[in-house]
Amino acid sequence: MTSRSRIIETLGRKWEVDTRWRSMLVMSQKSSSGMERLHPSYLKNLFESRQKTVENLERLVSLTIESITKAGGNVYLAKTAEDARRYIVELAESRGVKSVIKSKSMTSEEIDLNNSLIKRGIEVVETDLGERIVQLAGQRPSHIIAPAVHMSREEIAKLVKEKRKGEVTTQPEDITRFFRRDLWNSFQTADMGVTGANVVVAETGHVVIVTNEGNGRLVATMPRIIVSIAGVEKIVESWDDAFNVLRVLPVTAVGRDATSYISVIGPHGMSRHATVSEFHLVLLDNGRLKASSEPWLRDALRCIRCAACLDTCPTYRILGGHVFGDIYTGPMGVPWTAITKGIQSASEIAKYCVSCSLCLHACPVQIDIPLTISWIKHSASGKSLREKMLTMYEAYARMGSRLPRLFNWLQGSRYSRRIMESLLGIDKRRLMHRFRGGSLYSVLGEKYLGRREADLVYFPDTYAAYIDWELGLLTVRVLETLGYNVAVPKALSSGMPSIQYGLHSKARRTAARNVELLREYVREGSRIVCSEPTAAYCLREAYPKILGTPAAEGVAEATWELTSFIAREAKLSPTLASQQTQINVFYHYPCHSRILSPQKPSIELLRRVNLNVFTVDYGCCGIAGTWGMRKGVEGFLISAEIGRRVAEIVLETGCMEIATESSVCAQQLRQFTGLKTRHTVRYIAESLGIQQRDYNVLNF
Amino acid sequence: MIKKSNNGHGGSIMDEMIKPGVKKFLEKCRDNGFQTSYANNIDSLLSVLSGWAVNWGVKKIVLGGLSMGLAEKIRGELAAKKGYEILEIGEALEGLEGLRTGSMGIFRARAGVEETGGLVVLDDWASNLASLIPAYAVGLIEEDEVLRDYWMLAGLIRQNRPGGLVIISGPSSTSDIELTHVVGVHGPVGAGCIVVGFELD
Ligand code: SF4
Ligand code: SF4
């Protein structure tokens, strides 16, 4: 089945998409409020513990093996998935094992253990409720901690009836009670228990498993042979490091301070058959050790499998893990597929990443998944011509600024939209901004372009430079009114489409040109201000990682997002408030602002200019730059699925206007809510008494 | 608020008598879904246990990891006076099935973690099973065994190098079906934690 037909089939199951969307919304809200509650030192400690593992992986593998061997336990280092499978199957066969019970283990999915055991006539029973449900359905988990999140209670009840001859209602309590009874027999009679591991402690050789249901405890207690499988990256050096993980994991995974059970298995296991028991730890390499020396992949080894990145990812919320995923699903699934199966396999799912960067914001160990995915796209062979075309968005905008009438006509005519769709890959249903005509650079003239000494350098990016220079002009006027000297040198656009589609050479060239231009100003003490959050994200986050130069670092440190700068640095007069008519405004928080302006400074500003501000944290609006403009299924269609759901939430607040800073978010919100959408700086300009030209309802 | 336990003789233990660390621990335990109580003498403990057994409607009581003296006192009160069937988990190993419903396990936890509200079962298969198999499970610890945080527990583990350990922070639960929270999956449906102000062993 092609990925296109898989998407269409998934979108056809509307109920499933709706449920996943709602569930992920709830889970990500729990996770993010948990993160906010955490003491910052917890995240810092966690990061350091995980980074220590990545930097010392080989040494920690040796230390773990030594600790377990010294204590007389069994440990096996498997180089590959095949190797791990063989060890466990041989162990089972040599001990006459007839049945195996398993607690949740993504690593066992990675090595495809179940099938190998079943082929040898050994019965395998998953005991985690979600895992058992997907096992009975003949599927694989669609989410790393909520495996059956894609299934309805009705489907599950039907499954129970068909596969287990159980009579249950559709109440989750009733279904759960059924599985409690149904699985008990397996717990009692199984010869072997297989568990995963959340942490392995090198200093003592203990395996730590985190669960809520209690099945992990039963699997590690009831059978006579217990096997734990752990990827080598799960190793931490000491118990202090282990608790650094255990403190944060339940918080970012489910928003709780603690899970019901943390089971710790020593080198001899904890079986109830004290005298005849055996415990084996299988440590799995399968690409991890190699990845630890690979600059773009090594950070992913810090992953603690909390799933916060899945919950927040806009495309995962729509597509789920059976489309956006391999064994490992969603955002973290991309680097993890690269580590365990290679770049080409990872690139199959990398295309579902739209580079919104929400996963980076949600990740407790700061794995830069979006840039890693961008590198994976870059490293994989085969770029589509359409994607290459979309990276030429700036050239398109420049032409539009020169020939506004023609371009506005082309964008408005159904016939030409069809041609644009087949030539440029821009979906004909996508509402486009109108060109005002002219560029910001030509409007401002040499005074601003050539100014060398300035407090601030304004970096307008494509929209404010070429599509509607009035936004750029207003930004300059606001900054001047606030007492700053502003320069606007002619820069290239930020180059986000090249990053998004993995055209790294082009992205590097763009980044280098912009850094070269801006570094001179930074050296003279100027700060850089961006009215477009994505531009600020590129300058602050992406350029230093792509270029890795001190100049890029310097530019990054000097870069501010406009509203954050005004809220934190500028002196806004307190009398501003009285000049604005009080209206209800919905604030949309652009994805890239979350990295740079985590405190939502715009809301503070909008309130200071006397507006009633409403907001709901639903994450990404679904356009993600040029991605949501792309023709068809892997672009506009998914973007529209997200856009419609976001619009429902926005419209429910009853607001009649939307404020935001991202020009593309404005495009999406306007298209799906039908509401007037304006840049936050317009409200500030109004309060400062700065005159604005005709506001074009098709712009923002 | 922490539930005050009645000592069975008309007197009640006031909040002020409970050390702040223990109070915080019990509050955390309650957040995690535990029933909690504090008992400053054996009568008070027995009264809480018997009250919970009634509330939960259990018929059998299973003991795991308790000292012989304490087990005797529990038998004396709950079996002899109240008529419950009382078993040691070791005796029940072959008939674990019978413990899945209508039973209450009482186990000895060796530490509590104030930071997260968890009971620690250390290197003790009997406590492990008594806290896992029955429909309800109640952990007992002494107030001096409440550790402030995970760092202290890390120290304890380093010192003791246990063969196995479990940190229990509430009854077993799941949200695997449409994110609906359901309590009582494979482990106990209800969990209790009693901190005592006297020596248990
Ligand atoms: S950057 Fe956005 S779209 Fe890409 S994986 Fe992360 S959350 Fe998903
Ligand atoms: S990548 Fe980060 S957010 Fe995603 S599962 Fe791993 S640790 Fe959690």
**How many β-strands of chain A, per DSSP?**
18
Q: Sketch the topology of chain B as an H/E string, one letter per element.
A: HEHEHEEEEHEEHEEEE
Question: Could you say which structural class the secondary elements and strand pairing of chain A correspond to?
Answer: alpha/beta
Question: Measured on Cα atoms, how large is the radius of gyration of chain A?
Answer: 27 Å
Give the overall silhouette of chain B.
globular
Widest sheet of chain B: strand order? 1-12-7-4-2-3
Instruction: Compute the separation of the termini of chain A in Å.
Output: 41 Å
CATH superfamily of chain B: NagB/RpiA/CoA transferase-like
Find the CATH topology of the largest domain in chain A. Answer: Rossmann fold
Our measurement of the CA-to-CA distance between the termini of chain B, rounded to an integer number of angstroms, reads 28 Å
Topology (SSEs and partners):
The complex is a heterodimer of chains A (700) and B (201).
Chain A: H1 3-12, H2 14-37, H3 40-55, H4 57-70, E1 74-78, H5 81-94, E2 99-102, H6 106-110, H7 113-119, E3 123-126, H8 129-136, H9 153-164, H10 172-189, E4 192-195, E5 199-201, E6 206-211, H11 215-221, E7 225-231, E8 235-236, H12 239-254, E9 261-265, E10 278-284, H13 288-291, H14 308-312, H15 314-319, H16 330-341, H17 343-350, H18 358-362, H19 369-379, H20 385-390, H21 393-402, H22 404-412, H23 414-424, H24 440-444, H25 446-449, E11 456-459, H26 461-467, H27 469-481, E12 486-487, H28 496-500, H29 504-523, E13 527-530, H30 533-547, H31 550-558, E14 559-561, H32 562-568, E15 584-587, H33 591-596, H34 601-608, E16 612-614, H35 633-652, E17 657-660, H36 663-673, E18 676-679, H37 680-687
Parallel strand pairs in A: 1-10, 2-3, 2-4, 4-7, 5-8, 7-10, 11-12, 11-13, 13-14, 15-16, 15-17, 17-18
Antiparallel strand pairs in A: 5-6, 6-9
Chain B: H1 20-31, E1 34-39, H2 42-56, E2 60-64, H3 68-81, E3 85-88, E4 103-108, E5 111-113, E6 118-122, H4 125-130, E7 136-142, E8 146-147, H5 150-160, E9 164-168, E10 173-174, E11 182-183, E12 190-196
Bound molecules: iron/sulfur cluster (SF4) (2 copies).
One iron/sulfur cluster binds at residues 312-315, 331, 353-359, 369-370 of chain A.
